[in-house]
Automatic annotation (TrEMBL):
<feature type="compositionally biased region" description="Basic residues">
    <location>
        <begin position="1"/>
        <end position="17"/>
    </location>
</feature>
<keyword id="KW-0482">Metalloprotease</keyword>
<feature type="region of interest" description="Disordered">
    <location>
        <begin position="1"/>
        <end position="24"/>
    </location>
</feature>
<dbReference type="GO" id="GO:0006508">
    <property type="term" value="P:proteolysis"/>
</dbReference>
<dbReference type="InterPro" id="IPR024079">
    <property type="entry name" value="MetalloPept_cat_dom_sf"/>
</dbReference>
<keyword id="KW-0378">Hydrolase</keyword>
<dbReference type="InterPro" id="IPR012962">
    <property type="entry name" value="Pept_M54_archaemetzincn"/>
</dbReference>
<keyword id="KW-0479">Metal-binding</keyword>
<protein>
    <recommendedName>
        <fullName>Archaemetzincin-2</fullName>
    </recommendedName>
</protein>
<keyword id="KW-0862">Zinc</keyword>
<keyword id="KW-0645">Protease</keyword>
<dbReference type="Pfam" id="PF07998">
    <property type="entry name" value="Peptidase_M54"/>
</dbReference>
<dbReference type="GO" id="GO:0008237">
    <property type="term" value="F:metallopeptidase activity"/>
</dbReference>
<dbReference type="GO" id="GO:0046872">
    <property type="term" value="F:metal ion binding"/>
</dbReference>
Amino acid sequence: MPKLNKKSSVSKKRHVPYAKGFTPPTNRIQLAAIGNDQNLAEFSPGSDDDGFFSPVPQPSDIDDWLAQYCEEGQTYRQFYRECPWLSSRKWVYTKQKFNSKGNTILEKYPEGKIYLLPLGKFDSDHCVDFNHLQEFSQIYLGIDVVSMPGIKLDITNNVVSWIEDSLPDESSRGQRTSSRIKKQTLNARFNSKPKQYQIRVDEVLLKLKRKIPDDALCMIGLTMSDLYGDETDLFVAGMAAGKHRVAIFSFSRYDPTLTFDIGDWYGIKQDLNGIHGEERKRIILQRSCKLLVHEIGHLLGIDHCIYYDCCMNGSGHLREDFSQPIHLCPVDLHKLQTLVGFDIRERYQKLLVFYEKHEMCDEAEWVRKRLQYLDTSKGSL
């Protein structure tokens, strides 16, 4: 998750060292991490000539993820052994029906859903369509994804207010009742000259914890407002409370028409002349979809991937985030398939339809080639 502070700088070196203690995995370690004991084509990385899964790139900037962090990685077997969603014991904070004998998350939590909650407006030209986010994440993850009624944000006189309708209590049925409006002030910072604001992320996360539905596997708040954590932050992409299964993330900086100052959080400029409107929407959608499934992956127990260039790689800054692929490598696809139990070919076919519909050409071509590879391979599921 990108997070920058004012002290960060940009390196002009072509390559920079890995973080102290990190060693890139060898091919043998990569294959062992997949855990493909049955030699199934779905979990095979293919040959180098196939070009499906490249190694994680060496850092080229001192702020790159693996230049800053010595990650240990999580193999398939580690995930299978440690994932709380696969445990025979119910997750401590969940309130829904639980079947200890189930093999997948859908069998163990048959009522379980993933909830998306919009915080603020998602209806302007620079916003991603919330229905597209719901559709994509459901296809990608293989779990029912539901959009919740949104929370309104009012920004007036350097004050950000959280506004929600309070529905009548069911116990008052048959009596004259009316919904009430709840309005609460959020911690935020403003800069009047460029008219920019940011919302303090931890307070929003605390409010979201109180709204998670009883049948939720997890709930993710999404916003187009910029977020920050500490006063030294330029921004944060979001924050998660893993044990409580709640997170909040911002798409504010995913608009390709924006450029950002490396010293001041409010240093944001826009150039609408360099990109066509439909291309702008496509890029915002691609970036937003990738962030969403990456972060839900964490809430489902999947750690950062160090084995291949993958959607579950970490990122140290926006440029690195934008360069990473949207697909899962064999290690993390094996984890997700074991967790959910979906048919991998069917998932790829549905993703292909989504990518083609939204003109995500690179992603569509990758999936198309992967399906062709599976069709010509033996030992498939």
